[in-house]
Design a protein that fits this description.
The chain is built from 6 helices and 5 strands. It has 154 residues and is of the alpha/beta class.
């Protein structure tokens, strides 16, 4: 799977370790932006990852900052991105199977490295269920185009 990753200064160590693990497992895992320098603004990193996912240059993105919240807010401004803040294995699975999330946002401050890696594994492995959830994703896509989601029936 093609995975793009990035982090602000609080997530630097965790994202590098995650990228190395994913690469060892055979994924094409690429860190975007220079995350080794001085404090980084999370919108800059979220933009790089979100844009790559929205343009289908990557299958999924993973972002790491202090809480995951800032990254999620910023990434969700990019049409085609469905970024989810996830704190456990269940929300990782549901963010993909029900919400078709394509960008995973994690907390460097609240989660340990082992749970970050476990959440990422579940996120990557879980497919979108479709069915009744597909209509809801179509409604979200309509909203991105400035349309009223109540007009979407399928």
């Amino acid at each position: 799977m093609r995975i793009v990753l990035s982090a602000d200064h609080r997530g630097y160590t965790g994202i590098k370790q995650l990228q190395e693990k994913l690469s060892r497992e055979g994924h094409e895992a690429t860190v975007l932006g220079d995350i080794s320098g001085p404090p980084a603004d999370y919108p800059d990193r979220a933009y790089l990852v979100g844009k790559a996912v929205a343009e289908h240059k990557a299958d999924v993105g993973i972002l790491l900052c202090g809480t995951g919240i800032g990254m999620s807010i910023a990434a969700n401004k990019i049409p085609g991105v469905r970024a989810a803040v996830v704190h456990d294995e269940l929300t990782a699975q549901l963010s993909r199977s029900h919400n078709a999330a394509n960008v995973l946002c994690l907390s460097a401050d609240l989660l340990g490295q082992r749970i970050i890696e476990k959440i990422a594994d579940i996120f990557i492995a879980t497919p979108f269920e479709g069915g009744r959830h597909a209509r809801r994703i179509h409604k979200v896509e309509a909203m991105e185009q400035g349309k009223d989601p109540r007009t979407v029936t399928e």
